[in-house]
């Protein structure tokens, strides 16, 4: 009986490898995906080592001294830590709630607008920050506000001006 189970297992393995060899193109096509998963999901985990080290840039990750949980003891002992943690969690929670509800309310309100031009304009304005940097938006809006739309070398840039 044991030999029959081993023979059956060997036969299943042989069939599996036979199917695999017939579908080698799928394996080749999956290589880029596996590389992306490795590079963006597993390779960054090496950076977690720095949390347990007295990290020095000139020594790198493997040359820095290992200190264990000392960095975490210092972090948790800091009197500002719980205030910062509370602020971070509350801002994340508020961003989640208001961002989600705000998007739904905006979509419902825009659905009721009859003027297509106005609706498309509002949609474009609300989607621009997702595709364009805020720095570019601020510079363009500053140039529009000044009216000349020409970048001069001696212009006072809107992001560096103090007034």
UniProtKB/TrEMBL annotation:
The keyword Lyase does not apply. Its main location: membrane. It is a multi-pass membrane protein. The chain crosses the membrane at residues 26-49, 89-110. Keywords: Membrane, Transmembrane, Transmembrane helix. Gene3D superfamilies: MetI-like. One of its GO terms (cellular component) is membrane. The keyword S-adenosyl-L-methionine does not apply. It is found in: Membrane. It comes from the Bacteria. This is Sugar ABC transporter permease. It comes from Paenibacillus psychroresistens. The lineage of its organism: Bacteria, Bacillati, Bacillota, Bacilli, Bacillales.
